[in-house]
Write a structure and sequence with these properties.
Helix content: 40-55%
CATH superfamily of the largest domain: Aldehyde ferredoxin oxidoreductase, N-terminal domain
Keywords: 4Fe-4S, Iron, Iron-sulfur, Metal-binding, Oxidoreductase
Radius of gyration: 24 Å
Strand order of the largest sheet: 1-9-8-13-10-11-12
Largest sheet: 7 strands, mixed
Cofactor: [4Fe-4S] cluster; tungstopterin
Domain Aldehyde ferredoxin oxidoreductase N-terminal: 22-240
Structural class: alpha+beta
CATH topology of the largest domain: Aldehyde Ferredoxin Oxidoreductase,  A, domain 1
Organism: Geosporobacter ferrireducens
Strand content: 5-15%
Shape: globular
Pfam families: AFOR_C, AFOR_N
CATH class of the largest domain: Alpha Beta
Number of domains: 3
CATH architecture of the largest domain: 4-Layer Sandwich
Length: 714
């Protein structure tokens, strides 16, 4: 295969040196004309955009205009780590962020990912990788961070699916078995070529398993853009990882924070979240207990069969135990769990024994309960094929659940689905749908367009009731909801609806604060939480950090602090990490301001692209309350009590349809009041536009940004 590669162009560069977390340059590649060049990272970029997601959004802003579509050559894919990315002393420091214009939303999309690529890219001399244009044929981009070379190679033979291609390229570009750990590969997969849901797989070589494992930048169709540009893979090679490669300003600050957290993880993880045994899937049964586990397209929040896919099932029967499963060096949280030697029962790899990454909670909930599938082996098989085909597991689970409800409601039938009996619980049909996406065939082509486009099709072509379809189609801004049921948490409804990129929980996960602990009872309390937590979580994506070490482990005395939900001791850790790496002198307030600048910039970027206003922050009613009689009556006592106590409406003797209508009016009014409160707290107009005064206050008053705001405020 390597002999079949034809070198199209090569670029040589001086290796340079990282200073206080920055290489101070980025790598630009245009695939249309095969330009490869170095671009300076300016002081303004570091001040206002920091790194990671911030750099990605800034480069994307300058590459596109308001008319750019996802498949236009000028659209870019940007990968950037951030100044803390790559340190080995603090858990969760290997993240990179990927940005592009999304095929699903038409807006800038960001997705965070682990694996070795982000740190290796930085150590190879680059703060960011900027990819533009389209190649004529499939290409591989190879960065040798020790030799100082970048090559574009035509790659005609290799297969595309992620798990196969990552193994092949790791073998191809390594000089020996020992050298494989110095290789990281970015791939998509066959389904990314036929759907809008494509993801990117970032590899890291697991020396214990002797396999290239995959982590995913999953959301928003970034892998679809990748394959549209005819990129088969990115490969980076770097040998010589050490703890001081960032040339940090104060190594002692970093070491102190790291040692403290390592001790907490060692002592407390097994009694708190068991991340080192099962990863994020530790909360499956917890979500079920609190009526928060999405079931049957978010109709319900629990199910009698959840015990079949509870975390203990995966721990005892499937997930390999006793391995330090970090996706970057030094991460003792070790949550990148895997099911080894899993034998596939369907598809092109039937009979193969593979390593499955996970399942994460989102995968178990989306591929499992939300589709009514309570078979752990079916979930693992769906998980594996989504990854290798490059399909976002969250979008796939949510859109499949939507299709299943439409099928059971009679909107779809076997003639439309090509014979697939897409009832809730039909794992065989779900897998068949996924295989169709990979092949670009049948109903898989329709489903692969996502919920928003299916809603339009089902109304226009199949006569579906528009109001019903709008209510049950769990997408917003074009992106499918992630896997939490927000019906009883107004704050979490806002946590989904008031995001920049669409309903993804990485901005705000407030269910327990709001619904379980009642820590944010008023609109103002919720608005404050919907200001602070999205800004704090944004900060991780600016610096190259994973959020899990922040709140999936907490100090023993955390409950005694004034603000336990924020984990204040860990917030101080991040302040120390930032100052220790960059030499800044920020405090916890400045940390939030750094994120505010980028967060508001992304909002204005959305506005520039024709979105990002109040009407775009609406959410489907199923995210707020019961759509159907079945839903209401499954929680009738709860809903009747709410009507009586909160609305002042006597439900006795009223039909379920009448009660649904009254409850809906109340809940929609609550959501609108929440929007008003959040916009006010964020410094936005009631139409959702950041004010010029607020942009000046936070230091995001760049002329090109102000120009967009003026055009929309008038």
């Amino acid at each position: 295969m390597k002999k079949a590669h034809r070198r199209l162009t090569e670029y040589q560069y001086n290796l340079g040196k990282i200073e206080k977390g920055y290489t101070n340059r980025s790598l630009y590649i245009n695939l249309s004309d095969r330009t490869i060049t170095s671009k300076p990272v300016t002081a303004m970029m570091k001040d206002k955009f920091i790194g990671g997601k911030g750099f990605g959004l800034w480069y994307l802003w300058n590459a596109v205009n308001e008319r750019t579509k996802w498949n236009d050559p000028e659209n870019e894919i940007i990968i950037a780590g951030g100044p803390i990315c790559g340190i080995t002393q603090y858990p969760g420091s290997g993240k990179s962020l990927v940005c592009t214009i999304s095929p699903l939303t038409g807006m800038p999309m960001d997705s965070n990912v682990g694996g070795y690529f982000g740190p290796y890219l930085k150590f190879s001399g680059w703060d960011a990788l900027e990819l533009q244009g389209k190649a004529e044929k499939d290409v591989i981009i190879f960065i040798d961070g020790n030799a100082g070379t970048v090559r574009i190679e035509e790659a005609p033979i290799e297969p595309v699916d992620g798990h196969v291609l990552s193994e092949i390229l790791t073998e191809m570009y390594a000089d020996s078995e020992e050298d494989k750990k110095h290789i990281s590969v970015v791939t998509a997969g066959t389904a990314a070529e036929h759907t809008r849901l494509g993801l990117l797989n970032f590899s890291f070589y697991d020396v214990r398993r002797q396999a290239a494992r995959l982590k995913q930048a999953g959301r928003g169709g970034i892998g679809t853009v990748f394959r549209d540009k005819r990129i088969k893979a990115l490969v980076v090679k770097y040998k010589g990882v050490k703890g001081n490669l960032n040339n940090s300003a104060s190594q002692s600050l970093i070491n102190k924070a790291g040692i403290k957290l390592h001790k907490e993880i060692c002592k407390l993880d097994n009694v708190q979240n068991k991340m080192r045994k099962i990863g994020t899937a530790n909360i499956i049964e917890v979500m079920d207990d609190y009526d928060l586990l999405p079931t049957h397209n978010y109709k319900f929040g629990s199910h009698p069969d959840t015990y079949k896919i509870a975390s203990n099932v995966f721990i005892e029967k499937y997930i390999t135990q006793g391995m330090p499963d970090g996706c970057w060096y030094g991460c003792s949280l070790s949550c990148a769990k895997a099911a080894d030697h899993f034998e596939l029962k369907t598809g092109p790899y039937k009979g193969h024994k593979v390593t499955v990454d996970g399942p994460e909670y989102e995968n178990a909930a989306g591929l499992g309960s939300n589709c009514g599938i309570f078979d752990p082996e079916a979930i693992l098989e769906l998980n594996f094929y989504c990854d290798t085909y490059a399909i976002d597991t969250i979008s796939f689970g949510t859109l499949t659940a939507f299709v299943m409800e439409c099928y059971e409601a009679g909107i779809l039938n076997k003639e439309i689905t090509g014979g697939l009996e897409l009832n809730f619980g039909n794992a065989e049909a779900s897998l068949a749908l996924l295989h169709q996406m990979s092949r670009g065939e049948g109903f898989g082509l329709t489903a692969g367009q996502g919920v928003r486009r299916m809603k339009k099709l089902f109304i226009e072509e199949y006569g579906a009731d528009p109001d019903f379809i709008k209510d049950i189609g769990m997408e917003q801004k074009g992106l499918e909801f992630s896997e939490y049921l927000p019906k009883e948490s107004l704050a979490q409804q806002g946590g989904y609806g008031l995001t920049n990129k669409g309903p993804q929980h990485d901005e705000a996960w407030l269910i327990f604060m709001d619904m379980v602990n009642n820590q944010i009872p008023t609109f103002e309390d919720k608005a404050e939480a919907l200001h602070y937590f999205p800004m704090f979580r944004t900060w991780f994506g600016l610096y190259g950090l994973c959020k899990l070490p922040w709140n999936d482990i907490s100090p023993e005395t955390n409950g005694e602090t004034d603000e336990p939900a924020k984990i204040p001791e860990h917030v101080q850790n991040y302040v120390d990490l930032c100052n220790g790496v960059t030499g800044k002198n920020i405090d916890k307030e400045e940390l939030i301001r750094e994120s505010e600048r980028v967060y508001n910039f992304q909002r204005i970027f959305n506005i520039r692209m024709g979105h990002g206003k109040r009407e775009d922050d609406a959410i489907p009613y199923r995210a707020m309350g019961p759509v159907t009689v079945e839903e209401y009556e499954s929680r009738q006592e709860r809903y009747d009590h709410q009507l009586s106590e909160l609305v002042g409406y006597n439900p006795v003797g009223k039909s379920t349809e009448e009660k649904i209508k009254v409850l809906r009016k109340y809940r929609e009014s609550q959501y609108e009041q929440l929007i008003d409160a959040v916009y006010k707290r964020r410094g936005w107009t009631l139409k959702g536009i950041p004010t010029i005064e607020h942009l000046q206050k936070i230091g995001m008053d760049l002329p090109e940004v102000i120009e967009v705001v003026k055009a929309y405020i008038g």
